[in-house]
Design brief:
- The chain is mostly beta strands and 379 residues long.
- Helix content is 6%, strand content 45%.
- Strand 11 and strand 12 form a beta hairpin.
- It holds the Pfam family PROPPIN.
């Protein structure tokens, strides 16, 4: 998932830069008032800028196709126009204009999907021709959608209702509706596919429960409770490449990581030392008929395996669970241009230690009035 752009506080989409990980979480893209930037994650937990467009065009959306040279961008000056570039050659491959503002762009090795408020446009990635348009979708002002990274199981998920958490799933290869999920009672806030394209994670605007479904079977595999004290705005859900972890960011300073355990080998088997929560969920499910529905639901919900605390809460943040030099890492990028790298203990979980913090882009220079103003007194 991605963050809305506009480099300064007075910029587009309420301030902040646009930032997003690529499909396999090996690199990061950022859009700013000066253009777009590509960064690579390095083996020493660092961030290396590998390209900067320096176009001078305020870039509000940008996505890169895995680690290729193909980049799709949308600028603030032309919010209805999609530009597809070959960044290494510095050439424009093509551009398309749409009837309304582009709210999201998603890529995989087979398809490119453009999301408008009430339609989705599916392009063939090879020649960029439009293959299909999904029209008259429920109002989707945030451009919420998710395209599976897999070119074989190439599904796009998007809200099927603006009133409840219904998910429509469309097959972008065979160009037909696949299935509908009734995921939540409240409207959707976040969607994410696993790398294989078989699991879909969902969260609602309430922000307390995160669910994982098997697609197209529509089977609910996992249900996690992010918290019970307050409702929050979930900004991002992200599977690890191996599919073993799911990260969730919100408008708070805490990033949660959930572990997706394999199903128990046999019913009634003793729980493994590190899998009692999964065993308890299975036991509760088996005895659900003897418990009040609300009690059974709460007991069956898993809790976070690990958590990281950001130095300060961000309006929006995206996360990636990846390996750096074969060590598990949680990497969190914020719309303030900060990237935080945390150690993830694959055996014990718990609190994630902050290893390094990077600045993606330099802060804009202060106004002259700010430079000439006297310094504020210290506390």
């Amino acid at each position: 998932m991605s963050l809305g752009g506009g480099h300064s506080a007075e910029g587009s989409n309420g301030g902040g830069i646009f930032v997003q990980f690529n499909q396999d979480c090996t690199s990061l893209v950022a859009g700013s008032s000066s253009g777009y930037h590509l960064f690579a994650l390095t083996p020493d937990d660092g961030i290396e800028e590998i390209y900067a467009s320096r176009s001078g065009q305020d870039t509000c959306l940008v996505d890169r196709l895995f680690s290729s040279s193909l980049v799709a961008i949308v600028t603030v000056a032309a919010p209805r126009k999609l530009i597809v570039c070959h960044y290494k050659k510095g050439t424009e491959i093509c551009n398309y204009s749409y009837s309304n503002t582009i709210l999201a762009v998603k890529l995989n090795r087979s398809r490119l999907v453009v999301c408008l408020e009430e339609s989705l446009h599916i392009h063939n990635i090879r020649d960029m021709k439009i293959l299909h348009t999904i029209r008259d979708t429920p109002p989707n002002p945030r451009g919420l959608c998710a395209l599976a990274p897999s070119a074989e199981l190439c599904h796009v998920a998007y809200p099927g209702s603006s009133a409840v958490g219904e998910v429509q799933i469309f097959d972008c290869v065979h160009l037909h509706a696949k299935c509908v999920l009734s995921a939540h009672d409240s409207p959707l806030a976040a969607l994410a596919w696993s790398a294989c394209g078989r699991r879909l994670a969902t969260a609602s605007e309430r922000g307390t429960v995160i669910r994982v479904f098997l697609v197209p079977e529509r089977t609910r595999l996992y249900e996690f409770r992010r918290g019970v004290k307050r409702c929050v705005a979930i900004a991002c859900l992200a599977f690890s490449a191996c599919g073993a972890y799911l990260a969730a960011t919100s408008n708070t300073e805490t990033v949660h990581v959930f572990r997706l355990a394999e199903p128990a080998a046999a019913a009634g088997a003793a729980p493994p030392a590190d899998g009692w929560m999964e065993w308890l969920s299975s036991a509760v499910s088996a005895g659900a008929g003897y418990l009040p529905a609300q009690v059974a639901d709460v007991l069956a919900q898993g809790r976070a395996f690990a958590a990281a605390r950001l130095p300060r809460a961000a309006k929006r943040a995206v996360a990636a669970v990846t390996n750096v030099a074969r060590a598990p890492r949680l990497v969190v990028a914020t719309d303030a241009g900060a990237v935080h790298v945390f150690a993830l203990d694959a055996a014990e979980g718990g609190d994630c230690a902050l290893l390094r913090t990077h600045r993606l882009l330099d802060a804009p220079p202060p106004h002259r009035a700010q430079e000439d103003a006297p310094a504020a007194p210290h506390d």
